[in-house]
Amino acid sequence: MGTVERQARIVAMVRAQESVEIGELTKTLDVSRETVRKDLYQLDRAGLLTKVRGGAVLTSGNHETAYVARRTSHAAAKRAIARAAAQLVGPADTVFLDYGTTTYAIAEELVQLEGITVVTNALPIANLLVPNVGITVILPGGVVRANEGSVYGPLTENNLAQLHMDWGFFGCGGVHRTNGVTNHDMFETAISRLAIAHSTKVILVADHTKFGVAAQNKTAELNTFDLVITDSQAPADILGHLRDIGVPTDVVDPSTSDPEPAQTERGEDSQ
């Protein structure tokens, strides 16, 4: 069992039981007490739980869950959004995929293509795409955030600033009509803002659970995005607000196997 999977299980146990002891975790996960202590320390720093003497307890507040655990959440909606997003990418395009689980779903669609370049700050996305020799994968380097498998920091920013992308696909922690698009981690949000500035077309991919939510760190105003792709359960009031401010939306139906968006609500610019 790898670190990401093990930490996801720890988070799931804490959420289910509200508290866990180190002894219980060592038996359940079949690892040493030192490994558990290290996991708890990292998860505490990430805000996913609170480390206490002898174990950990549930942290109150609105925090993101571990990466692997989130990938299975609302998976059908993410797949439908990803199919619509992938259709935008053409031969020889350079694409930025932000860290996140919806962008990972986009990578699962793009992995079938050849002749494209993918820039990403997410190690899971890079690892997925690298086996396809027809795709050029660019990692900008930087400090690795263990809980998410993403890279950030001055090295990431300096290298990313030298690149230009045709398409930038961005996930988020929240889409709010007043607070705009927000996310949980300040360092990764800084990378997202820089990638937005270096992308010709900027696409927001977010399932319905992100709407009406405001996370801690501002990524961008709503009208920064050239297109918002979401699923059919997204609230009508925010979709209407997007239309009012001139932001096109693609609303896809997760219940259909048809890869084409089930409903399209666009402004004058169809992309």
Automatic annotation (TrEMBL):
SMART domains: DeoRC (SM01134), HTH_DEOR (SM00420). Residues 3-58 form the HTH deoR-type domain. SUPFAM superfamilies: NagB/RpiA/CoA transferase-like (SSF100950), Winged helix' DNA-binding domain (SSF46785). The keyword Transcription regulation applies. One of its GO terms (molecular function) is DNA binding. Residues 247-271 are annotated as: Disordered. It holds the Pfam family HTH_DeoR. InterPro entries: Carb_Metab_HTH_regulators, DeoR-like_C, DeoR_HTH, NagB/RpiA_transferase-like, Tscrpt_reg_HTH_DeoR_CS, WH-like_DNA-bd_sf, WH_DNA-bd_sf. Keywords: DNA-binding, Repressor, Transcription, Transcription regulation. The keyword NAD does not apply. Repressor of the lactose catabolism operon. Galactose-6-phosphate is the inducer. This is Lactose phosphotransferase system repressor. It comes from Gordonia asplenii.
